[in-house]
Amino acid sequence: MELLDGHKNNEIRESGKAMVQYEMYFTNEYIEEILDDLVVIMELHIDKRDINAAMQERDRNSLNNLLLLKSEQGCICIDCNDKDWIFPLIAICQDGVAAKIKEIMLKWDNLIRDEYGQKLTEEICNVYGKTQTLLSVIEGYYGITIF
Prior knowledge:
alpha+beta; 5 helices; four-stranded antiparallel β-sheet; disordered N terminus; single chain
């Protein structure tokens, strides 16, 4: 798995384009459908074998748990660590596609909440640049910088 290198991260951040970061948890059975929706908007490529490999990894400390899709415009990160089959999803994108990404994530979040009898979410907030995020937790757990 290739992480975004720091130089490219700085280029993306300094490009003058506003970045947005949305995060949510989801149940593992929807991973392919959620990714299918997101990769179209973010113009990313997904190989279904990569999804399976991340989900099949049994070493909870292995970087192979991470499913990371990236481009010059941003990235999607899913930690497929199987502690409870509920995975964190982070989508970092440029502001130009943020509304569509937010709409997709909100749709899936509410579909899953409705299925499990939970209160629906009205908003998914932009946490780009914040310190206490799912991304920061994942980076701290694995000792890496993703974005």
